[in-house]
């Protein structure tokens, strides 16, 4: 169970670094629309820390043992956030000031 939580938070850390790097590279290339999308992804991953702190007390209050809840919450704290960000990108029309660079 410990390995599951470790892997989840390792992926979160790597994803946060990856999206941050791509946001930085996009803004350095002056591709603002791409930078915005990468920053939304980056923020959704950073917000995982807040989501984790919401899920943990909720699991304790519902009587789920910490050892059982934590490996699941380690994934739930960031994967849904990222999925919502991606869903919002696919639902919204592309911004009109896009420079045409891929995201």
Summary, kept brief:
The chain has 103 residues and is mainly α. It is built from five helices and no strands.
Please tell me about this protein's structure.
The protein is mainly α. The protein has one domain. 78% of the residues lie in helices and 0% in strands. It is built from five helices and no strands. The protein has helices at 2-28, 32-46, 48-61, 66-76, 79-91. Helix 2 packs antiparallel against helix 5 (79-91) and helix 3 packs antiparallel against helix 4. The mean pLDDT is 91.
Which key features would you list for this structure?
mainly alpha; elongated; 78% helix; 103 residues
SSE order and pairing:
Elements: H1 2-28, H2 32-46, H3 48-61, H4 66-76, H5 79-91
Helix pairs in contact: 1-2, 1-4, 2-5, 3-4
List unreliable stretches of 5+ residues. none
Number of domains: 1
Helix content: over 70%
Rg of Cα set: 16 Å
Strand portion: under 5%
The DSSP helix count reads 5
- How many beta-strand elements? 0
Structural class: mainly alpha
Distance between the ends: 35 Å
Please summarize the sheet with the most strands: none
| Global mean pLDDT | 91
List the helices and strands in order.
Answer: HHHHH
Shape field: elongated
